[in-house]
Amino acid sequence: MQIGFNLPLSGPLARPEIMARIAREGEAMGYAYLTLTDHVVLPDLSTPGYPYSESGEFYGASPQVRHEQLTAAAFIAAKTSRIRLVTAVMVVPHRPAVLAAKMLATIDVLSGGRLVLGIGAGWLKAEFEVLRAPPFAERGAVTDEYLAAFRALWTEENPRFAGRHVAFADILFAPKPVQKPHPPIWVGGESPPALRRAARLGDAWYPIGSNNRHLFDTLPRYKAGIERLRGLVREAGRDPRSVALAYRVKRWGERLPAKATDGERRLFSGSARDILADLKDLQSLGVAAIDLDIDREDADASLAALNEFRETVLAHL
Q1: Triad 29, 32, 224: Cα angle to 5°
Q2: In a structure prediction context, what are the per-residue pLDDT tens digits for the chain, which is 317 residues long?
Q3: What is the distance of C-alpha 6 from the center of its chain?
Q4: In total, how many domains does the chain have?
Q5: Per residue in 141-191, pLDDT tens?
Q6: Which of 20, 196, 227, 275 is 20 to 30 A from residue 241's alpha carbon, by CA?
Q7: CA 110, CA 297: separation in Å to the nearest integer?
Q8: b/e map of 170-207 (b: 16 or more CB within 10 Å)?
Q9: Separation between Cα atoms, residue 225 and residue 180, nearest integer Å
Q10: Residue 279 carries which DSSP code?
Q11: How far is residue 100's CA from residue 116's CA, in Å, rounded to a whole number?
Q12: d(CA 127, CA 112)
């Protein structure tokens, strides 16, 4: 099982020297990967709407003050040497398909093959509108088509594609990504369409447990989600083992209320012993990767949280 952490791209921890320090020290501690989130712009946040917290409000201070995800990934790639870089997740319709494919291939090449492409269709309509992205109502179909275009550009010597939202032919696309056939695609999302997308197109399913409309925050809920995914993978004509499991944790430890709305204990709540038991349970389910948010008040506190987790939990896994 690989363990990662979210590298803050927003708020007071988003200063370049702090980001580079957390990335390098996390790498030195032995963490397998770091994650980078994706918002280009955020609207007025006075009306709660964030889907991954109980209150509908973003975790952390000043979430609207943030760096662009792919630019930040390239910056962090240059500051590190081994740790993998996971987009968590890239909102696929936000960027034109050919441009996004080129940026992602460039990051993979310049990082020496360390990119993992976590993807999602997006949830914030206002952001789509200000970016002049494809219509919000069509974001699922656009995401699927763009992913198919990415694969064509990354794997075909003379890529051609003719879709409703993207088309190209008679172009050269080089260099190709270092990873073959392409960087792993982790499909984020918790809704039924997201599970179907993971089953059809993903190398892994990558939910956040705390989506307040589609909760996977307890062991029974998550097991049920895995069973639904496996059934959808079979329906798609794929081997269920071909879609790996990854899991993202927004809050953990004593900061997280222990009892969930289904009456069960929330995953990753409680003591280090409780969290270790959760990791072992998820490992037994075949989960291959888990990452945690480490946003604290400053860099020292964030790194202390990473080190404490390593010493009190990971050392016993």
Answers
A1: 125
A2: 999 999 999 999 999 999 999 999 999 999 999 999 999 988 765 555 666 666 666 656 666 789 999 999 999 999 999 999 999 999 999 999 999 999 999 999 999 999 999 999 999 998 999 999 999 999 999 999 999 999 999 999 999 999 999 999 999 999 999 999 999 999 999 999 999 999 999 999 999 999 989 999 999 999 999 999 999 999 999 999 999 999 999 999 998 999 999 999 999 999 999 999 999 999 999 999 999 999 899 999 999 999 999 999 999 99
A3: 9
A4: 1
A5: 999 999 999 999 999 999 999 999 999 999 999 999 999 999 999 999 999
A6: 275
A7: 32
A8: eeebeebbbbeebbbbbbbbbbeebbbbbbbbbbbbbb
A9: 29
A10: H
A11: 14
A12: 32
Strand 115-120 relative to strand 90-91: parallel, antiparallel, unpaired? Answer: parallel
**Strands 84-87, 115-120: parallel, antiparallel or unpaired by DSSP?**
parallel
Overall size of the chain counted in residues: 317
Q: Which residue has the tokens 């639904």?
A: 228
Residue 56 backbone zone (phi > 0: left; psi -120 to 50: alpha; other: beta): left
> Is 269 within 8 Å of 253 (Cβ atoms)?
yes
83, 24 contact by CB (below 8 A): no
Token pair for 233:
């993978």
pTM score, two decimals?
Answer: 0.94
Enclosing domain of residue 82 = 2-316
Residue 66, phi-psi category: left (phi > 0), alpha (psi -120 to 50), beta (remainder): beta
Task: Return the SS3 of 80.
Answer: coil
Nearest by Cα to 86 from 117, 124, 51: 117
Query: What percent helix, strand, coil does the chain show, rounded to 5?
Result: 40, 15, 40
Peptide bond into 233 cis (omega under 30): no
Tokens encoding 223: 């097991």
Question: What's 93's DSSP letter?
Answer: G
CA 238 distance to own-chain centroid: 23
**C-beta of residue 127 within 8 angstroms of C-beta of residue 94:** yes
Q: What would the pLDDT profile of 1-13 be if each residue is shown by its tens digit?
A: 999 999 999 999 9
Q: Given the structure tokens 């993207």, which residue do they identify?
A: 166
